[in-house]
From TrEMBL:
Gene Ontology molecular function terms on file: 4 iron, 4 sulfur cluster binding; [formate-C-acetyltransferase]-activating enzyme activity; metal ion binding; ribonucleoside-diphosphate reductase activity, thioredoxin disulfide as acceptor
Species this protein is from: Shewanella hanedai
Protein name: Anaerobic ribonucleoside-triphosphate reductase-activating protein
A Pfam entry, by short name: Fer4_12
EC number, as in UniProt: 1.97.1.-
Catalytic activity, reaction form: glycyl-[protein] + reduced [flavodoxin] + S-adenosyl-L-methionine = glycin-2-yl radical-[protein] + semiquinone [flavodoxin] + 5'-deoxyadenosine + L-methionine + H(+)
Keywords, alphabetical: 4Fe-4S, Iron, Iron-sulfur, Metal-binding, Oxidoreductase, S-adenosyl-L-methionine
EC category: oxidoreductase
Function, as annotated: Activation of anaerobic ribonucleoside-triphosphate reductase under anaerobic conditions by generation of an organic free radical, using S-adenosylmethionine and reduced flavodoxin as cosubstrates to produce 5'-deoxy-adenosine.
Length: 154
């Protein structure tokens, strides 16, 4: 898996102070997508073990307390991302069980494959659905268009 950007401290993408990873790879091609460069799974940098360690270090950092981890993109549930994302969410819930995980995906909860559901089993909040330009509303919190749904899973 490649990633587009990593914010070790973020107060925009989800509640509280968080670490946020924007992965590469997305098939949804939403009109008005805010970052088409993330569609290409080869875009950005490799999310290797060092980066995984970095995310865990940041979540454990007591100087700037993070409430949790946000996973966005691109699409964290893009099929080629699932192995790396599953390893990451498992490790977060093992080493930092008190941290919440939010995940944004263009796939809807009711259309997830078994492999995608295996990731969601470790996720606290899923914000699902494609971005619909006609339903875009900048006043919405944590989502771009009104068709998207915030599912609290835990
Ligand atoms: S799901 Fe997100 S990244 Fe993918 S095309 Fe839609 S808005 Fe862009």
């Amino acid at each position: 898996m490649n990633y587009h950007q990593y914010f070790p401290v973020d107060v925009i993408n989800g509640p509280g102070t968080r670490a946020t990873l924007f992965v590469s790879g997305c098939v949804h091609q939403c009109r008005g997508c805010y970052n088409q460069s993330t569609w290409n799974p080869c875009h950005g940098h490799e999310f290797d073990l060092q980066m995984q360690d970095q995310v865990l270090r940041d979540l454990k950092d007591t100087r700037i307390k993070r409430r949790g981890l946000s996973l966005s993109g691109g699409d964290p549930l893009f099929p080629a991302n699932l192995t790396a994302i599953l390893a990451l969410v498992k490790r977060v819930k093992t080493e930092c069980p008190e941290k919440d995980i939010w995940l944004w995906s263009g796939y809807r909860l009711d259309e997830l494959s078994d492999a995608q559901k295996a990731v969601i089993a470790y996720v606290d909040v899923l914000v699902d659905g494609k971005f619909e330009q006609a339903l875009a509303d900048p006043s919405l919190q944590f989502k771009g268009s009104s068709n998207q749904v915030i599912h609290c899973l835990t």
